[in-house]
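User: Hi! I'm working on a homework problem where we have to compare a predicted structure to a textbook description. Could you give me the structure for the chain below?
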Amino acid sequence: MKHHAPTLNPRNLRFLSAALLTWATMSTASAQGPAVPAAAAVQAQQFTLSNGMSLIVKPDRRAPTAVHMLWLRAGSMDEVDGSSGVAHVLEHMLFKGTPTVPVGEFSRRVAALGGRDNAFTSLDYTGFYQQIPAASLADVMALEADRFANNQWPDEEFKKELEVVKEERRMRTEDNPRALMNEALHAAVFVASPYRRPIVGWMSDLESLTPQDARFYYQRWYVPANAAVVVAGDVDVAEVRRLAEKYYGSIPARAVPERKPRVEPAQTGMKRIAFKAPAEQALVTMAFKVPTFQSFDGGQDESDALALTVLSAVLDGYSGARLERALTQGSDRVADSAGADNGLWGRGPQLFVLSGVPAQGKTAEQVEAALRAQVVRIATEGVSEAELARVKTQWVASAVYKLDSVFNQARELGTSWVQGQPLDAHERLIERLRAVMAEQVKAVAAKYFGDDQLTVAQLLPQPLNKTGKPRTAPAGSRH
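Assistant: Happy to help. Predicted structure tokens:
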């Protein structure tokens, strides 16, 4: 459902292959890291179709496959109060037919071509994709363009799919105390920003959602000038451009609705929520409001956002990082687990999040104090050049590893487009992160972790329901 985590989330570094991670660790003497593979040397190209739709093409000839994606700069943040969840429900409804493609036929046709397909919704965007043999690109372009322009379904089909989404919410959120607390935390953190609403929607909104709500969102935001087609793989740029004009360019142009700014007001004091839910362990999560990286030509906020991302990696960017060593190891450990994450960029305001699960015999208050102490330590003592070299080298290794996947190449191009960033945003971001200095990390640790920027959520475990049975994935769920 939600695919919003930034590409450079330091926790993702832990999922590198063992060989690559070993190489990266051994190479910490050089902050330059590994060379970019030949696949990345081929530059992506961007075009604008006759109706205002964007087209991005990235050739990669290593295998006779291709990834075709359709991105909408429209996610749950573009909903209105009372219809939360409609962006996600509509994503499901895009699989429910057009005048020429019956319900359920879209995925069957993709599978018959030897491909697979799915979709995703986030706060910032909605996306649809197919991974197919390169020779089938024209077929999936025709299918995707058809449902983008001609999606339609009977009211009864909407009502059935809405029940699937409601069950999805029950299974993934309401049966998950941490997810429930995270939902409550965001609702408390944000006042004006639409990021306060959950992507899956509040259950009360889902209960009252109507087919017309979904059709209104579709008509409003599924506009050519608000969409981008991304194609990566064994393709010819000129041929992809011809096909895109044929299948997508003929869709009538419409104006993208004006967006209201919805600026988040300054916070003027610490917020705390105590969240009760059936659970085995407590949890404390601390969310600090921090700047968003918006432009490579930006100023202090952008520099600080980059330094905060490096700070999160120093705290929790690799096995044995500071939080793990200080909080979860030793005979007097305070936490079973601890983490840090910086949002970095998005269409809305971002957060730096510290979290921890108390060890047996320890309290959430002790974990909270220990988490803050680690940030204070960096604010007063700084970080070592060796730490910086290690996280920077691992970032580069992670970027190289991801480029082995054509899907990830297409996904990075799509997320860059959504954020209004250049096509080489992720490469440029790596270069900017490489340039972050130890003094910058020390400075942001001292600048952004005061009480006025903080919202704390504490999970208070309640007795478990011993008779309850675990839910299974809802029928029809695409996630």
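For your comparison, note the following. The longest strand covers residues 350-358. Residues 293 and 303 are 8 Å apart (CA to CA). Good luck with the assignment!
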